Amino acid sequence: MRHNPLKDVIHGSTGMKKKILTFLSGIGLSLLSTVVILLVLEGVVRLTTDFKFRPKARTHLPISSTYRLSENPGLVYELLPGSRARVQGIPFRINAVGFRDRPFHRKKPGRFRIIVVGDSLTYGWGVALKNTFHKQLESRLRGSGCAVEVLAMGVVGYNTVQEFHLIKAHALGLQPDLVVLQMTPNDFERTAGIQRSRSGKGFTLTLFHDLRIPYVTGKTGLTKWLMRHSYLFRFISLRLGALRKQGNPAYSPKNVFLLGEEKSFRFLARIASLLADHQVPMAAVIFPEASRGRAYRFKALHEKIHRALEQMSVPFVDLSDALNGDAAADVWLERIHPNVRGHAIAAERLFELVHPLVR
Question: Are 191 and 161 in contact (CB under 8 A)?
Fold first, then answer.
């Protein structure tokens, strides 16, 4: 029988195809198995851990009788007009408009009106109303001969998103001559969430910024999406971060996962645009968190805020050096809120910024 080389080629080609198909099938099966395993692990983490994309119970802020859910979806929650509470011996009285301040009256002719909008720093957490930085600022301005009044619109936990809606809904209607936006680093870290009680009558405010997640894998579009949606990815990030910290006691992650950073900067720009449309000048004051002699982990974020304000031509003062510098004594109640002396330092620095703007 004559040997047919073409037949060998055909048989060889068929064998190669089978090997390729077997190889590809193996890869497909491996990928499918990997996906199934990851999905199973994702489910296990969701079922067995308390990490449900919210802080642990101790970091929740209970809402007292001075708060209520807001009908304005942009605000989420708000202070209850006419309510009052006493926390650690400090009285908190909410005026008829819904802010911790004296009653707001119709603007008097010739009176320069400043409205300070912010979070718990403007609210005055831990200090009497008269000792807040904005009331001390008002006293300094009046002492310098200015016919001025300073109104405070501060709500615990508010960020730039809520502050935009607050200015739109409340501040503009009071005819301000200047709006001062008070900011802290955690304004750019999170959005606020609500957990309703089982009865549906009460609720708890959830501050997502209390999730200090070391973003060890770096930031990309994919990892940001995974950080938001995958419990497994967050779980692994936390564990890797803990291992790195154990290996180096001085470890401080360069990248902290900032849940709401992009959105917060967009709304900062919207605040500036809204006030410009109504021909209301804007200024800003940036409070730091306490560093207490350690390297300040929000330095890069402060610089980013500086650049944003400079691009919008918004005058501002950053209190980082004043409250965390070498010359500063003990000015903190805890890591976020300054004490009376801290508020006095803030008022002094803010006076230097605002006084030339008061006509």
Answer: yes
